[in-house]
Amino acid sequence: MYLTxxxxxxxxxxxxxxxxxxxxxxxxxxxxxxxxTLDNLSDANDTQLMQRLLAIAPNATELSAEDxxxxxxxxxxxxxxxxxxxxxxxxxxxxxxxxxxxxxxxxQAGASISYLTNKGYPPLxxxxxxxxxxxxxxxxxxxxxDISSQYISALLMVGPYLPGGLRLTLTGHVGSxxxxxxxxxxxxxxxxxxxxxxxMLTVQAGTYSPTNYTIESDWSAASYWYSLxxxxxxxxxxxxxxxxxxxxxxxQAIAEIMTHFGVETSFLPNAVHLKQQPLAPQxxxxxxxxxxxxxxxxTVAVVAAALARPVDMTGLESLRIKETDRIAALQTELAKFxxxxxxxxxxxxxxxxxxxxxxxxxxxxxHDHRMAMAFAPLAMRGPLNIEAPTVVRKSYPQFWKELTKxxxxxxxxx
Length: 414
Ligand SMILES: O=C(O)C1=C[C@@H](OP(=O)(O)O)[C@@H](O)[C@H](O)C1
Ligand SMILES: C=C(OP(=O)(O)O)C(=O)O
Hints:
This protein is of the alpha/beta class. It is built from 12 helices and 21 strands.
């Protein structure tokens, strides 16, 4: 699909999808509570899929989480404690994304789960739940926090339904911590007694209450609009509705990160306004840590290369086990434009460029929505061909439509 920019500064309003992270937690909590209403659920496939699978699970013996990490991990825990029996599978890539940390923990708590193909990876056979504890005894587990926070969120959410409750002690260098905090905050909102004290998280046995909750727009999706404002002609700006200053989403960090690339954020009552500012010369290379916000890494790597404003990026370890190996994918695709993501020291990647130019290159997307959306803003600098553009349906199905509303022209590749 060819993408071209009609020229002039970016302006107007762009609609964002609702956060799929908030939605997929709220859907699990709602299913366990047995009621309540959720406003602003998005049309993102990850959210639609979670809704659909929760609805059909009671009458199904095989479910596919497709390529949705939260669906795979959260449902493994939910289906186990609700005594579901059947197979839980996913796409070929999902079958390469590890799940042993979660399965081990659930087995210790009393779940019967086995691997159908490769040990440590989906598909799983889920076979009911028999608590290993005498009634009233707390389930205490030590869980690694350095692979995926989704295992921890999954365990926490079913915590109230373990007889005696749950105490998790996180080990290792915990990544994506804001997502754990989001889980704790939403559990509390749904009436759970859940306390986080550093790396120890304690959930009392109990039930969730039917709750009404309005899901915020998605800050990870907002990051592509920050990128468009940063790369657009002088004077570019955009209004993004339904983002809050007080957010549960760690990817709100994009507001601070993008000050470095000349984008100023103003928080309005129920929206944010982004405006391009003149870029001050850069005296030294900044280091940005993505441990807490891994989904922003692709957006930032592409902006840094396109603006020839190098940054050192750390905390990228989890990128290798997401929808694709995002480090390898970034390296291959940036190289097509004169960009680079080079490991300059262990765990430190420099995003930079020499003679960066956009001129009809084809961007491969690797079944990864964020590859498509992170590279799309380059079309402001020249015509671009994006392969398999429908990949955005995972989190932001309306992305291309919103771009055309803002002055991009889309035509089909020959
Ligand atoms: O809990 C969540 O909603 C998510 C947690 C993060 O994953 P990891 O914890 O695997 O880093 C993030 O990358 C993903 O898009 C959504
Ligand atoms: C990593 C992502 O999603 P998930 O892990 O839920 O598949 C993402 O949306 O960038």
